[in-house]
Amino acid sequence: MINKVLVANRGEIALRVIRTCRELGIPTVAVYSTADADSMHRLLADEAVCIGPPPAVRSYLNIPAIISAAELTGADAIHPGYGFLAENARFAEICERCGIKFIGPSSEVISKMGDKAAARRIAWEAGVPITPGSEGVCSDAGEVRRVAREVGYPIVLKASAGGGGKGMRVVRSEEELEAALTAARAEAEAAFGSGAVYVERFVERLRHVEVQVLADAHGNTVAFPERDCSVQRRYQKLIEESPAPGLEPELRGRMQDAAVALAEEIGYEGAGTVEFVLADGEFYFMEMNTRLQVEHPVTEMVTGADLVAEQIRVAAGERLGEHNLEPVGHAMEFRINAEDPRRNFLPQTGPVEFYNPPGGPGVRVDSHLYTGYTITPYYDSLLAKLVVWAEDRAAVVRRSLRALEEFAFTGVETTIPLHMAILEDEEFARGGVPTGFLAARSFQSSEGRLRLSAAARAAS
Amino acid sequence: MINKVLVANRGEIALRVIRTCRELGIPTVAVYSTADADSMHRLLADEAVCIGPPPAVRSYLNIPAIISAAELTGADAIHPGYGFLAENARFAEICERCGIKFIGPSSEVISKMGDKAAARRIAWEAGVPITPGSEGVCSDAGEVRRVAREVGYPIVLKASAGGGGKGMRVVRSEEELEAALTAARAEAEAAFGSGAVYVERFVERLRHVEVQVLADAHGNTVAFPERDCSVQRRYQKLIEESPAPGLEPELRGRMQDAAVALAEEIGYEGAGTVEFVLADGEFYFMEMNTRLQVEHPVTEMVTGADLVAEQIRVAAGERLGEHNLEPVGHAMEFRINAEDPRRNFLPQTGPVEFYNPPGGPGVRVDSHLYTGYTITPYYDSLLAKLVVWAEDRAAVVRRSLRALEEFAFTGVETTIPLHMAILEDEEFARGGVPTGFLAARSFQSSEGRLRLSAAARAAS
Amino acid sequence: MSELRERTARERAGAEGDQEESLPLETVRQVVELLVESGVGEITVRRGELEVSVKAKGEAAPVVQPAFQRSEAPAAPETPDSGPEWEGLHVVRSPIVGTFYRAPAPGEEPYVEVGDRVSAGQTLCIVEAMKLMNEIPSEVAGVVREILVEDTSGVQYDQPLFVIEPEE
Amino acid sequence: MSELRERTARERAGAEGDQEESLPLETVRQVVELLVESGVGEITVRRGELEVSVKAKGEAAPVVQPAFQRSEAPAAPETPDSGPEWEGLHVVRSPIVGTFYRAPAPGEEPYVEVGDRVSAGQTLCIVEAMKLMNEIPSEVAGVVREILVEDTSGVQYDQPLFVIEPEE
Fold it and tell me: ATP-grasp domain: which residues (chains A, B) (predicted)?
């Protein structure tokens, strides 16, 4: 039983959790920084506690303040959302020690999967395909050179503590190796406090395809239809969809099986995502995210599941419910960020003068915005997630264009024009673009509208 | 082929049609009265034509203005929405004569079904069950008395040209008959220009259950899962849901078959709804609405169909697509009207100071509102339709409460508090309430919240 | 109330010496005029015991402008309410939706030209709707200053057609 | 500006006879003009008994208030920013989330009572967070005028705890 949930997050994901808790009849506690006093998550929760000043390290990353807020309000569970403390093993451990249920896997599992080199080894042990590369962290330049010769160039160096492209370097020949290793290590050290790196063969033209898993404490694990998250900008996902265009059911089944095998291998509990590289019809383990993902709604749209409700039920010790594991129709999510795509994604702050989200059939909006809300510079730039469902992918593309056109938003620039440009791109319309899709294109304005044009340099 | 659609309506339904046209790549023409210059349907359509001053008779009911607008803009089809000219056979006929495709059935079919007494006879001929009563219009008091004796009291007198409860009288004994007949005829004459009435046995405790049909010009007709629209106030629907609580699949199948039989009997084309009385496990034909209904989204939510898209495809001569005719999960629609339920549903007008619709999983909002919109006194009071889907009815009730609580709306009073009160009613929660449900209850305010209490007088 | 009246009376009595005293309404009026003319928000002037303070009317309730954008430039006809302000001039607007004709029939002379003097009730044009020719009369006598719509183009309800300078 | 001063002086001289009398409207007009030209928000000029103050019209961007309503009265702790305005007084706020204790240990005397004189740096209370006792000092010397939180209750970040009247 969970009696009261503290939501250790802000923005749309805090709202997402509050919504489901309300539907389940569980009271919620919002925590907020002084910058978020007028935020919807504060206003819609049953209780709210101010936990610190605007900088996240002093509020949303402030573990003592959050634990104190849970104790003061009698919350017996904490939902971390995504980002902030969601994959912080120490936070999960402190929750465990304080007798507060952390809604997610155990601190031990978070810790294991947080070490990307170790996770790779575990995946391999569970029989999940991995790209050729080092078995774990490489101890020195000599070992990197040896592994690189074995698997063949190009290779990619990755930070073991990393994520999001930091501490990552593509190396195309042995001459580049030394300098790239030094740079990757320094970057990893600066970003994560650990310079440990490992080696993988670099896959040139890949798609990012991931599988959502859900596991209860009674040994039941299910894997949902995959999400294709290949439309990215600098390793930041922009558009996600389910199912992945053109994926054969047989391959889907194998990916689902692999994800379940990994989750079972580590004794996973709760919602998690196994990320794969898809290249030339084969898939390889990339990493596992031990939390709810931003893009979880696309899975909800094609299966009817409520993943947050399932997270909470599983955390309360209940068994997994029945789930539809075949996609029905097609869904896409568009991340609407406070960034100006016409000015190199310059972050935007300030008041939202007018806000009116689209409605009608097949349209879901998850957002903490409202007319009059002020975007502050302290947190991430995600303003709204537009999630669109229709009976097939072509219909989703058309409906999404309609919804984006209808999305009324003034006061700040957003990524809405970029999404519309992507939807009008021919290669995107065919489906199955690689992760280099956006980098290979330049942006042009024509008749006040943003358009993509295939640039000279090839997709990488 | 349809090249351009003029939407002869306003408010949320005009927006609904514009949205689907945009998704189908068909340009739209909005028509608007001077009172609606700042309306979303005007702002979101590709073109817009001002057709008259605020009173509907001079704008949205002004046939020459609408036809002229279609001719000026080159629109080759007109979607009438619901209300206004949607069931006006003369308008459909004028469209036919002007070579403009009226998106709906032929003027002949509209005319036939508009005569309620004739429609009853046609249903009977098609083998659809009807309540015992007169075969058609009763010529005089003597005939009414004879039929009433045959079917037994109580009986109900209904206006043949009618709808919405006007010209309707329940008669419980022969003594009341004469006066009731005079009153019903006078009311019908005043409202519809025809005093013709017919007689039906009055069913005391009934549910209003209706079946959505869709037929193409090639002889294909399908019937969707039923909608239960029994939560009404003075014959105005307030909440609709699909499927009908507790309805056996076998009975659903028979109702669907009956609806298809009627549609085929009259050569129906397009979207229409066959309304039934459901009493004691049996159903009887009530009337057929030859248009899109307000509550069509609940059917869309449980089947994934886009009924407006299908209307347009069928109007363009295409064949019906594949449809899922079994309900998946459960859906409810809440009509949010500009009426104050605490003050006898006093109509509300004025500016909407703040408007923020709910979002998140399973929530669809169809509305023409925005922060700063002004509600005028000229048209109907429907402001927004909240449509909620979840895996079963209990989950829909919980999710709906969540969404209604989240619906931010200031400046005018709405029916939101009433919907919340209904959702908390025990009989409603059990499901399958009769049409007398709301009339049998009084409203009470407790802790600032509206609540229903079963009043002394019985449901009627 | 009575106390207040007494006090006022007493004060007035005390002020008797300095002429009519009471309030210098003429000065107030001048400050008000200054405020209105200048468009500033508030003026306060004090000298010794006299103080005059005038404030402009509070800003109207905040109005949020709907900001919906269509993807393409809309091909919509000119909206009826747009157009320049015609101060002191009379604007003839279309009472119906239809097609605007300047002449009774194709090839014939237009009813009026810019510069023509027209009398009240004189036909200015035809707006055709559903094959019906509706003659649109001038509501005033005056001189035609502008013809706002092209011959044979579509007009909406309330759309300005002619600008007429009325005769005094 | 110097011109203004001169003129004002002249007017004052001229106005001397009819005592305070009417107001120097010409001066006011000049101040108004200065305000409008300069685009500043407010000008106040005072010399001796004469004061002229002119404000521009409030620009205040339209502010839409979010209006979300929770179903039940929320059991939320008092929000940090609520409470009366303490003009001229010093408010000590909680730097952390935790439990407020007025005394060093249960059963002991409170650190301070209303009316006590406190010095800067003197401990006023403890806020406990995660078993750590955080002593909260007064930032100013003065007299404790109000204790805003009940002993052993929860406090949020930035929540006002004490009102202190600083010593001059």
Answer: 120-316
